[in-house]
Specification:
The protein is mainly alpha-helical and about 180 residues long. The chain has a domain at about 90-180. Helices cover about 45% and strands about 0% of the residues. It has 8 helices and no strands. It has helices at about 1-25, 90-105, 120-125, 135, 140-150, 155-160, 165-170, 175-180. Helix 7 (about 165-170) packs antiparallel against helix 8 (about 175-180). The longest helix is centred in the first third of the chain and has 24 residues, at about 1-25. It is flat, with a radius of gyration of 44 Å.
Length: about 180
């Protein structure tokens, strides 16, 4: 037992060296030899049949072709896409769109102050005609659903981020109340 504790590390190293040498010597050769196939029945070389002689070429008599009158073809009219059905809009959304003209004249509110509205969403809301806190504060469930359907990737944000409640604070000018509930602007 004393022998293994004194020389155990050296024995382990020697064992690893021996395993490495055996591994290298027993490896496959670099170039494989092709397998030897024994043929029991000799095969005759393939002989092809001689090519047939070309047939006699007979010249074609040319007949005078009569010109054919081509009837003019009228181009088809371009397909007309069906007009999409208009979505009924509640009066509050109509007021929001009408208010967009007033907002452009009076100066729009900074919608970026609302939590959850970034630059892309701000641009999208302006395109939809939403520019004032008072517009958002006056939204009903129907209005939110109508706007939400037009938000694309931002669908669900008005409810999740509580835009209506935030807009009520900012429309009333209650910045302190807004910051107490939603954090610093």
């Amino acid at each position: 037992m004393q022998f293994f504790t004194d020389y155990g590390l050296w024995l382990l190293i020697a064992l690893l060296v021996i395993i490495g040498i055996v591994f290298l010597l027993s490896g496959r050769s670099k170039t494989p030899e092709p397998p030897v196939v024994e043929v029991k029945h000799p095969v005759a070389p393939a002989v092809s049949a001689p090519a047939p002689e070309p047939a006699e070429v007979v010249p074609v008599r040319s007949a005078a072709a009569e010109p054919v009158a081509v009837a003019p073809v009228e181009p088809a009219p371009p397909p007309v896409a069906a007009a999409p059905e208009p979505i009924p809009v509640s009066p509050a959304v109509t007021a929001a769109v009408d208010g967009a003209v007033d907002g452009a004249v009076d100066g729009a509110d900074d919608l970026l102050k609302l939590k959850g509205i970034g630059p892309k969403l701000n641009t999208l809301l302006i395109e939809l005609g939403v520019t004032r806190y008072a517009q958002i504060a006056g939204w009903t469930e129907t209005d939110i659903a109508a706007i939400d359907a037009k938000l694309g990737n931002f669908k669900g944000r008005p409810v999740r981020d509580q835009w209506v409640d935030q807009a009520k604070y900012l429309a009333a000018g209650d910045v302190a109340g807004f910051e107490a509930k939603y954090g610093k602007i």
